[in-house]
Specification:
Blueprint lengths: L62 H4 L14 H8 L4 E2 L1 E7 L2 E7 L2 E5 L4 E7 L3 H9 L1 E6 L6 H8 L11 E4 L2 E4 L4 E13 L2 E13 L5 E4 L2 E4 L3
Antiparallel strand pairs: 1-11, 2-3, 2-6, 4-5, 5-10, 6-9, 7-8, 9-10, 11-12
Length: 233
């Protein structure tokens, strides 16, 4: 026998309301960097660098990061030395003999790179090869003389330029002034004390402060095109 529910009766169905699932998120763990105090450990959200891992590369600022340094400009192509000598010989210059002493012996050489520097502080500028024996004696003694050659003494130009250093004063009259040898036949003679010096390329420039002088009316000699010419008094 089948029993059916009576009419008018309603069956109650139980409804279960399901609460949403709550998840609890643990705070990010802060791990101190080895060797760093715990108080300086990275805060949450900041990557921690540990041995064996690479930290993100930092941006590099500055010109070196943008491009390599510019290359040095190429050295200029210089003219041949012999061509320069031929050209510069066309500039007329005076002819002088620079003299000084080494020990008790006089030494000297021919020089045409001599010019006045100042009249307010009477001084001259001379240039000699940095390996010159006469230059070494000038710097050691601290004094030297500039002797301009007269036309009558023009033969001394070659003697003091290419002759044996030990024989350059043989037969040449001179007298000491402030213990520096001065050529007796020099049209102009200046005794100088060494001032400033400067090594430039293969030469040394010396400033000479004039402390004694003598000048005559002897006709000086001028060097032009590797030949000597007299000038009127």
């Amino acid at each position: 026998m089948t029993t059916t529910p009576r009419e008018g009766k309603t069956m109650r169905t139980a409804h279960v309301t399901q609460s949403p699932l709550r998840t609890t998120r643990r705070p990010t763990e802060t791990r101190p960097v080895p060797g760093m105090p715990a108080s300086e450990a990275a805060p949450p959200g900041v990557p921690v660098s540990t041995p064996g891992t690479s930290a993100p590369e930092a941006a590099t600022h500055g010109p070196s990061a943008q491009s390599p340094p510019p290359e040095s400009p190429p050295a200029p192509e210089l003219v041949p030395a012999e061509g320069f000598r031929q050209a510069i010989a066309k500039l007329p210059t005076g002819v002088t003999v620079l003299t000084t002493v080494t020990g008790d012996s006089p030494v000297g050489c021919t020089a045409n790179a001599v010019m006045s520097l100042s009249a307010d502080t009477p001084s001259v500028l001379v240039s000699l090869g940095s390996h010159s024996r006469t230059l070494a004696a000038i710097l050691d003694t601290g004094s030297f003389a500039v002797n301009t050659l007269s036309w009558s003494q023009r033969a001394l130009t070659r003697k003091f330029a290419s002759g044996s250093p030990a024989e350059r004063f043989d037969g040449v009259p001179w007298q000491p002034e402030r213990r520096i040898p001065v050529l007796s036949a020099a049209g102009v003679a200046l005794v100088c004390e060494v001032g400033d010096t400067a090594a430039l390329l293969d030469h040394t420039v010396v400033v000479g402060k004039v402390v004694w002088l003598r000048h005559t009316n002897e006709a000086p000699t001028v060097l032009y095109g590797r030949e000597q010419y007299p000038l009127g008094a």
